[in-house]
Amino acid sequence: MSADPRPFAPALDALGQRVIDRIGIPKDEWEIAAQLEVLGLRDADARSLYGRRDLFDLARAIHAQFHAGVYPFVVEGEDPRPYVHPAVAFARRYAAGLLFSAPMALQAATMLVWGYGIWGAIDLDLTKGSAIALAFIASYIVAGGFSQAIVRRGLFYIYQKEEVLARWSALRGWSIAMRVMLALIVPALLLNLLFDILPWSMVLTAVAYYAALTILWLNWSLIYLVRKSHLFLTITAVALAAVLVAAKLFGAPPLVANAVGLGVADTLSFAVAILSLNAMVRRRGAAEPVNPPRLTVLVYSTSRFFVYGLLYNAYLFADRVIAWTTPVGREDFPPYAFWLSVRYELAMDLALVVVVVLSGVIEYATERFSDELIPREKRVRSVDTAAFLDEQLRIDRRRAVQLGATAAVAIAIAYGVSVALRLLPNPRLQEALAAPTTIPVFLCAAAGYVFLMFALRNILLLLTLSRVDAAVRCVAIALAVNVGVGFVCSRAFHYAAAVAGVLSGSMVMAWLASRAAKRVLARLDYYYYAAY
Amino acid sequence: MPLSVLMTTEGTYPYGAGGVSTWCDALIRNTPDVRYVLLPIMMNPHIEMKFEPLANIRRIVNVPLWGIEEPSEFRSGTPFAELYERKRGTREDDIASEFVPLFRRFLGCVNEGGADPAAFGAVLLEMENWFRARDYNETMKSEPVWDVFRTTMEAFSDLPTLFDLTECLRWLYRFLIVLDVAPPRTSVTHSTAAAFCGIPCITAKLRHGTPMILTEHGVYLREQNLFLSRFRRLFFCKQFLLNLITAVVRANYHFADVVSPVCHYNTRWELAHGVPQQKIRVIYNGVDSDVFAPAARTAGAPLHVVATARIDPLKDIETFLRVAARVRETHPAVRFTVFGAVADREYFDRCLALRRELRLDDAVTMGAATSDVVGAYRDADVVLLTSISEAFPYSVIEAMSCERAVVASDVGGVSEALEDCGILVKPRDVDAFAEAVIRLLDDAALRTRYAARARNRVLDEFRLDGSVHAYLELYRELGEERAVA
Questions:
Q1: How would you class A49 by CB atoms within 10 Å of its CB: exposed for 0-12, middle for 13-18, buried for 19 or more?
Q2: H runs (alpha helix) in A380-467
Q3: Within an 8 Å CB–CB cutoff, is residue A519 touching chain B?
Q4: Bridge-based pairing state of the strands B405-409 and B382-385
Q5: In angstroms, what separates the C-alpha of A320 from chain B's closest C-alpha?
Q6: Helix crossing, A254-284 with A163-195: angle to 10°?
Q7: pLDDT band at A286 (very low <50, low <70, confident <90, very high)
Q8: Would you say the C-alpha torsion A123, A125, A128, A130 has a positive or negative sign?
């Protein structure tokens, strides 16, 4: 039995207000009772100070008073986010997107100005150039899957504040990749031994570049994992400097200069990666992982990302492999089964300007989607989900229109670059640009890359929401189309018609990815829940 | 047949330090004839054991909730091929037709705060059966599960935002991972908290009729209420989680054959939530009085006031600091030490700031645990506990066993431990604490009298062998009852 409550009313009001100030809206009297206990009150105090039987009775009284509106309370809104002008936000994201292209742009510049890149030199003969091209493509495809797996799993652990495991899984992925990369050399050599596909000098050159470049891409992924991507440019600059010093100061032949450059890039990138991973682990204060996951499970859980990386990188270079393995329509009569076409490569590189220009836009759109999703979900009541989903689809359409408009500008810029290059006093470059295949391939590839960037925009959305299966499906089908169309066209009409594969594959990928993304956006409420 | 016990823990033994872990270790160590299967629910799987595995622990079934992408990552004993097949065999149509109705019933029980614990237990068992044949991740991340969650919660309340629902279902995904383990059958189950770790004991009881013991060290429901009170901006999430926790707690209470809190104080919450009085058997914690044995302080050493408490708001270290400041106004040579790890970094920073403000940097040491707890007590003239919330703290009975004078806040079961063998003070009352400490520091004879009484009380009431014997008797009684049945 409670005592006559009247003499205790002021004390009860003050206590109730104190509790509500601490907890906001109480869920029930039990929540209030727990608070009363930690305020140091006991059943004896409930009786002597508030005239209630015990703390539970006191809590019930406060709860009843709360519902009677006795206690004013405030529920704070979200902390205000610092305002960033959209133009500034865009510039930042765009610059971040460009940063990934910067090493490639720097290499292109040094190639044009001084005739050297880290891999390759303008004066290399076509035999060596073909070997390096083969090595580049092989390394990119082999490293692609592992890079995705390393980054995906590593970031998962970093988000979980398990930096020790992040390092463990990344280095484990790296070492498995190294073994696979080396193991693949054996069948390649055997194949060449059996079928005499390429001369051994070419094969050995390719193998050396392949190994060095694969290591570089894998190190890149470690550096990306530790969020030091800005160092890509620094490492590239140092390696390029090493190449130039070797070639220009010491007169080293191009292959030796490249070897120096790749050695510097590999060593430096690995050192940066290891030092950064170790620093990350030191901050956590532990050295060895405790109870890491089973290898089979680790492989299984990263396998979809591995497949995605493998297929995507294969997609990017499938047309080159197709184009450079047929003699149909080639003016330079290729002596071997794989023979680089400088004209074709130049056209594709020019078209790459479209990718560079658009990648910043896509980076911005993806980041903005991620940044705004949670605040939007916090504002939208569940019963208003349908309107929220409609709005998402509307935003998506707006972003697509923006990308389309930017794409037109990107193609114009790329064409402008091709015109500017003709002004350079380099006869080989001018000859290549004037060749009848170059501009049609460039235009076709540029259009293809526009579609690819549309596809990529949606694929990044799918990956952001952990729908990697859908992303894999898009890329796999597009790759099949790319290879099929490219192969038929290059064999039936002209080697350079392999670019039709890029255009058709990218169109298919854009369509599939758009369909998949729309499906996801139409149920974003569910897909966001499941994306963790 | 030797007795076998499934002991389930949550965030404690064998991966965490603290009172519950100490209790588990002592119980298992001192019942060598009992075979234990341990089922620890842990925050993540990448933590090291704080206790050496004992010989009578036959198996440990770890249940990590976070730090994994999906539960199958750490499911030991199941071949990968089987896990893969299970994943492939979990189809959305089956989820919609078979699991969704279960899940809807489950949510109904949660939204009612476990008002019908028997129904809640039954649905937990059915869900566990589902997960024994189907993949947990594929099920819980499926569209039908999200849809039924959303529609059920919308029908329950028009408040939730999409973010609320997303967060709540993600939490539920983690908490229900405990349904995805299949611990072996034992003679008895023993849950060390009325929490999610009690769920395997509940389903074992429903599946096999295995008797269940529930020991409450703290009061889980109260602790979770305190924790979730921080969710000021997320009322719906707080409401959902407290309903879920209340349902789980009530199911624990309902299915336990014996509820054995470590002090009478805890029974207040248990009785209020429907535990019948006859089900409750208080078993006090015990200490090894040979280990926590008295020893004289070094002669001439400055007076020293010690607390053994982690740095946590519930331990009210701020009051400890204010008491230190007050005591040093008249006794400037007295040293103060808090032995205990930092549990709450933000709170520790606040304490450091207060220490600086009170000019106590040279007088008060804190921020680190000690490996020599006995030494810490022996180096004390007065042991001070300023907690605002306790159950039956080891720090008090250990200090008593070491024959030290204790000043403690009158919270939880502290008064049951201390009775008249120390000084009880109202929590947060700095003046009263300071006065009690000064009284003891000034009067060595009084300290000695309190300390001697405290040691005798431990020898009479709180010996480790007595506590262990009580649990062993319980195991035998319930285990044999079951054998007879």
A1: middle
A2: 385-422, 427-434, 438-464
A3: no
A4: parallel
A5: 38
A6: 150
A7: low
A8: positive
**For residue range A362-409, what is the model confidence (pLDDT) as tens digits?**
988 888 898 889 999 999 999 999 999 999 999 999 999 999 999 999
Q: Which residues of A touch B411 (CB under 8 A)?
A: 37, 40, 42
Name the residue among A261, A255, A248 with its Cα closest to residue A204.
A255
CB contact under 8 A, B165 and A292: no
Unique residue bearing structure tokens 């330090």: B17
Helix axis angle, B317-330 to B430-442, nearest 10°: 50
The stretches in chain B having pLDDT less than 70 are: 1, 75-76, 481-485
Nearest to B103 by CA among B145, B156, B69, B65: B145
Q: Does A385 touch chain B (CB under 8 A)?
A: yes
In tens, the pLDDT along B299-341 reads: 788 999 999 999 998 899 999 999 999 999 999 999 999 999 8
- Helix, strand, coil distribution of chain B in percent, nearest 5: 55, 15, 35
> Would an 8 Å CB–CB cutoff place A332 in contact with chain B?
no
Q: Residue type for A301, please?
A: S
Alpha-carbon gap: B223 to the closest alpha carbon of chain A (Å): 8
Sign of the Cα torsion B11, B15, B19, B23 reads positive
Give the long-range contacts of residues B276-280, CB within 8 A, separation 24 or more: none
- Residue A219 tokens read as 């190190």
Query: A377 with A528: CB under 8 angstroms?
Result: yes
Quick one: which of B143, B137, B157 has its CA closest to B100? B143
Q: How many CB atoms lie within 10 A of CB A27?
A: 23
If phi > 0 it is left, if psi is from -120 to 50 it is alpha, else beta; for residue B424 that is: beta
Q: Establish if A302 touches chain B: CB-CB under 8 angstroms.
A: no
For residue A125, what are the contacts with CB-CB under 8 A and spacing of at least 6?
none
Q: Which helix (H) or strand (E) holds B405?
A: strand B405-409
In eight-state DSSP terms, residue B97 is: I
The ipTM estimated for the assembled molecules is 0.89
Tens digits of per-residue pLDDT, A321-335?
A: 999 999 999 878 788
What pLDDT sits at residue B484? 46
On whether any CB of chain B is under 8 Å from the CB of A529, the answer is yes
**B46/A388 touch (CB, cutoff 8 Å), yes or no:** no
In the numeric block, the tokens 């611990």 are attached to B183
Give me A459's structure tokens: 């694929």
Estimate to the nearest angstrom the gap between the alpha carbon of B168 and the chain centroid: 23
Could you write out the DSSP letters of every residue in B280-349? Answer: B------B-TTTS---PPPTTPPPEEEEE--B-GGG-HHHHHHHHHHHHHH-TT-EEEEE--BS-HHHHH
Q: Are A353 and A419 in contact (CB under 8 A)?
A: no
Mean pLDDT of A119-145: 94
Nearest to A5 by CA among A82, A75, A64: A64
Those residues whose C-beta lies under 8 Å from the C-beta of residue A94, and which sit 6 or more positions away, are A360, A361, A363, A364
Q: How many CA atoms lie within 13 A of A377 on its CB side?
A: 20
Distance CA B247, CA B219 (A): 14
Find the length of chain A.
532
Q: Is A30 on the interface with B (CB under 8 A)?
A: yes
How many Å apart are CA A419 and CA B63, to the nearest integer? 64
d(CA A349, CA A330): 19
Distance CA A405, CA A215 (A): 38
Helix (H) or strand (E) holding B191: strand B188-191
Q: Measure Cα distances from A451 to A430, A488, A509, B427, B441 in Å.
A: 29, 21, 8, 69, 82
| Interchain pair A290, B147: CB under 8 A | no
